[in-house]
Design a protein that fits this description.
143 residues, 75% helix
């Protein structure tokens, strides 16, 4: 596996563990704000999306028979996805303190950009190959 694939899968498992711990906390304390939206985002964007990105980077180039369009963009996406998600978690904390939503909005945009980077990278990797040229018709042999 490529290192970006391994890092996405590692991050997914770390976010899954954190989300489970937050879920256990809510089992005792109840659906406490801002823990609940952080728990949800760590599950969906951290655990599920990061796993999809990692598996996608591993499998989709193989299915298309072509190398990944941009290895560099995959690493940029890895960083923006993590920065966006951690920033969103901080944004939920800031929002709960009554300061405002600007931190949450900024990091939500960073997270959205990371998804855009993945989509661009995958679309360029799996783009449809031109159809093979038709075989010439067989010419009958005269005896």
């Amino acid at each position: 596996m490529s290192s970006v694939t391994v890092w996405f899968i590692r991050c997914a498992m770390i976010y899954f563990l954190i989300a489970i711990l937050l879920g256990l906390h809510m089992t005792v304390a109840g659906p406490v704000y801002p823990v609940m939206p952080i728990h949800v985002h760590f599950n969906l964007l951290g655990w599920m999306s990061m796993m999809v990105f990692g598996v996608g980077y591993h499998i989709l180039p193989r299915f298309s028979g072509k190398p990944l369009w941009s290895e560099r963009l995959s690493y940029v996406q890895l960083w923006t996805a993590n920065i966006g998600l951690i920033g969103m978690a901080a944004g939920w904390v800031v929002k709960s303190s009554g300061v405002g939503t600007s931190v949450l909005v900024i990091f939500s945009v960073v997270e959205a950009l990371s998804v855009l980077f993945f989509v661009i990278n995958m679309m360029k990797t799996i783009k449809i190959a031109p159809a093979p040229a038709p075989k010439p018709a067989a010419v009958p042999i005269k005896k």
